Amino acid sequence: MSEEIEKETPATEDKIKEAQEQALRLRADFENTKKRLEREKSESIKYANEKLLVEILSVVDNFDRAMTSLAEGHDPAKVREGLQIAQTELHKILEQHGVETVKSVGEHFDPRFHEAVATAESADLEEGKILDEVQRGYLLNGRLLRPSRVRIIQNKT
Hints:
Oligomer: single chain
Number of strands: 6
Radius of gyration: 32 Å
Order of helices and strands: HHHEEEEEE
Strand content: 15-25%
CATH architecture of the domain at 100-153: Roll
CATH superfamily of the domain at 100-153: Head domain of nucleotide exchange factor GrpE
Helix content: 55-70%
Structural class: alpha+beta
CATH topology of the domain at 100-153: Nucleotide Exchange Factor Grpe, Chain A, domain 2
Strand order of the largest sheet: 1-4-5
């Protein structure tokens, strides 16, 4: 019986060594894959806004041209027209990327979407309604990016 054990031991040891080597290779492959995925994730995050920024560059060019036109003394009405086109183009790009404005003027104040920066009295408007917007708020795919800064009606009683 001791002869059988001695015959099996070298074969078993070879199998164990082979299994250990295979485990080491698998671990190295796993570590390399993990590093590659982390590198790819980092690159994806780094360049995530590339498409949006490329689209915005044309709007930046339009604003630059408008400023140059003003400096050269061109007709301010024509420059204003160009600025309005650039503004519309920018809002369209933002909308295509899931950005929408927070509705505020005439709405009831909602602290989830609005930030009250001032109050005003009005006999015509209901208390708690938003009179006007000091700064527009925005949502990104339904999630608040920035609240609207508003003035609300607060009647004295």
